[in-house]
Amino acid sequence: MTKLDVLRKYFGHEQFRDAQETLIDSILCGRDCVGVMPTGAGKSVCFQVPALMMNGTAIVISPLISLMRDQVNALRENGISAGCINSSVSEEELRKTCLKAVNGELKILYAAPERLETESFNRLCENLEIPLVAVDEAHCVSHWGQDFRPSYLKISGFVKSLKKRPVVAAFTATATDIVKKDIVNILGLSDPLSVTTGFDRPNLFFEVRTPEYKDIELLKIIRENGGSTIVYCATRKNVENVCEMLKENGIKAAMYHAGFSAEKRKAVQDDFLYDRIDVMVATNAFGMGIDKSNISLVVHYNMPKDLESYYQEAGRAGRDGSAASCILLFSQRDAELAKYMIDVSHDDANFSADEQQLLKERDYKRLRSMIRYCSTTRCLRSFILDYFGEKSPKSCKNCSNCCKDFAAVDVTVEAQKILSCIFRIKQQGKSEGKTLISRILTGNRDRRISENNYDKLSTYAIMKDIPIRKVREIIDFLIAENYIDIAGERSVCELTKKADEFIKDKKSLKMRLPKENQYKKAEKMKSETANPELFEQLRSVRRELSSKLGVPPYVIFSDSSLREMSAKMPANIDEFLEISGVGMLKAERYGKIFLNVINNYNDLNNSGKT
What we know:
Elements: H1 3-11, H2 20-28, E1 33-36, H3 43-53, E2 58-61, H4 65-77, E3 82-85, H5 91-102, E4 108-111, H6 119-126, E5 132-135, H7 155-161, E6 167-172, H8 177-187, E7 193-196, E8 204-209, H9 214-225, E9 228-232, H10 236-248, E10 253-256, H11 262-273, E11 279-282, E12 295-300, H12 307-314, E13 324-329, H13 332-344, H14 353-375, H15 380-387, H16 400-403, E14 404-410, H17 412-427, H18 434-441, H19 447-451, H20 468-480, E15 484-487, E16 492-495, H21 497-505, E17 510-519, H22 532-549, H23 553-556, H24 559-568, H25 573-576, H26 584-606
Parallel strand pairs: 1-6, 1-7, 2-4, 2-5, 3-4, 5-6, 8-13, 9-11, 9-12, 10-11, 12-13
Antiparallel strand pairs: 14-17, 15-16
Helix pairs in contact: 1-3, 2-3, 13-14, 14-20, 17-18, 18-20, 22-24, 22-26
């Protein structure tokens, strides 16, 4: 079979997406590769298709048990022989998997990176023909990545230990240039083809809100959006409080964090995957590699420490290409909490004191970019893509900043006063954060102000007639527009070169302010479902099959496949096979069931027509 035959038969797609074919060809030609592709772009297909075309068993190294289980379930549903080896697998299942592999009956074997060091796994690999080692979530190999895992450093040694060097293919959704270089060097890739398809996810609607009461805002968001939802919180305590609040208000929610036992984490995750609950409230311990395709909303109750983490977590929405929303609820306390978590997270024996300090400074820099994202009035998608070094249009028309009505307000005088205050403090050989600066400007009697003689500054109380919240908003704007930099462990405000030029050139400055949160509703992307009644009937049948077969609903068919069925209403197997996501095995297994629902719906709706 050709690669296109494999794609059609097993995965139910008529053609490859951007860069998939290029990466597959590289692997089939025996060349190592690195693929940086956004979540939902089909990274798995890039190593699964060649694995089916090559002799032997491909090894896929994946960091999370849940990801392996989901991928293996999906592959088996597509008629592909696959298995996994990790700590959650029973002795009996492990024995059967190894026997299948040795007998040449397994095309793809998933393994946790920790397994690479075990004698039993290495003995197994001695008896296998391994044409390909695919490394998923490859950014975990880099100290500079947001999810560094020491176990990933063992991959290169494992590859060298094999009797014949396989092709090594590395894939990730988020990687800056320095992380990409680390992936190549640390994994020992040989003259790899490097492909970056772009980071844009056009189906995702990005939004930042700064509510006075987050709980009230969160309830409003969930009730307005509905659907399968993840709510991310920065701490376990917040997870527990938010989950309890949602349940008290009638939301079918559950919580997940690293403090739970492995059994409880699996049970809660399965409830979410099988659509038994609507909302998962979790720390960032939940989600990397989660393959649930019908998540329509991701809300960040707290701001993450960096844009890499935010984009990866937000990107769990809309994996099937359907429109989805990513909403961040921002407050100044989030920035303080993120800074605290950076301060306590670098006591690591794997690094020297100098390395720990370097990593901490890196994380402070990332945090500053994250704060700018929360404060900017420019296009949010453009901000994200610029951060990852990708060119983007000034307006995407699918984020809150592009869909709000803004008024341009002149803040030249206010900006001059703020920048002047920072300069006066610097003249005293000191520096302060934006909270204290806003208090100085508004004439607050804070003890630290009098102790440092800041009440003697010429800029003390020069903005006393302006609400302190408004002063902070202007400071955030100046940070977002790079007139002020946030520096050091104390997150102090420092003037940039751009600020110096602004003062010297006496330029005017306008700040965009939203008009009462009004949106140009027509511009917000929505998932339009033709024949919604039929769509719900198809979902109901899928849910029954899911329960009967013991696999998550989206493994049978994704929501996007069901939407296409409800729109095109195929009448026979040939037409059913034309639906994206319907392969030969799924058509044989489920075709009659779903076609029966569609035909009954058609008959019922046509019976009343003359």
